[in-house]
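User: Please look over both lines:
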Amino acid sequence: GDGAAFARGLSRLLRRLALTRFPRGGVAGLTGEDWLAFLDEHGGQGRFREGPGRALLEAPYRPAPEFPAEDLLALVGEWVRLNGGPRR
């Protein structure tokens, strides 16, 4: 499979959800490590910066033979469940 395309798709999904759930000014300009830090602060618990979520940054730029597709999908799914419910 194409890990880079998979990672880009998941990143777009997360960004769309974040833009609907959090103040736009705090999300729209985030890139790279800052984006991963934001995801960690809102439920990733370090697993975007220090775990499978790193693939969101790294996969598009380098071939990743050990692309953590299942772990990344599980992490993204958990984040979406945490942040995708009705607004509190």
In short: The mean pLDDT is 89. The helical segments are 3-21, 32-44, 55-58, 69-83. The radius of gyration is 12 Å.
